[in-house]
User: Which sequence fits this backbone?
């Protein structure tokens, strides 16, 4: 016989907290005596939505792809899409500096 990891009451508490994110998962984990990753895994296995945290840099700013920075530079220069091919290979700091100087 298989042991039950989550009681129906625990599942109901997880469902009530839906949509789940890391902060809600931590609170539920403390309340249910489980680890946050376990609560998240259970919510996903139940088919509930989980809002994953967006990756950020060490300084807390949002991560932007180089292609997005090049698109922003193209818009600032009123250049056509794809007119700055190869600029994606520049360093992120160079692209950030260029965008801040022309914007």
Assistant:
């Amino acid at each position: 016989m298989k042991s039950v990891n989550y009681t129906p009451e625990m599942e109901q508490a997880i469902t009530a907290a839906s949509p789940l994110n890391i902060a809600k998962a931590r609170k539920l984990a403390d309340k249910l005596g489980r680890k946050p990753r376990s609560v998240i895994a259970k919510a996903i296995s139940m088919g509930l939505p989980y809002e994953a945290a967006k990756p950020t840099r060490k300084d807390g700013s949002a991560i932007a792809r180089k292609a997005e920075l090049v698109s922003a530079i193209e818009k600032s220069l009123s250049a056509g899409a794809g007119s700055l091919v190869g600029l994606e290979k520049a360093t992120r700091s160079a692209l950030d500096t260029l965008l801040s100087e022309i914007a």
About this structure: Residues 66-102 form one domain.
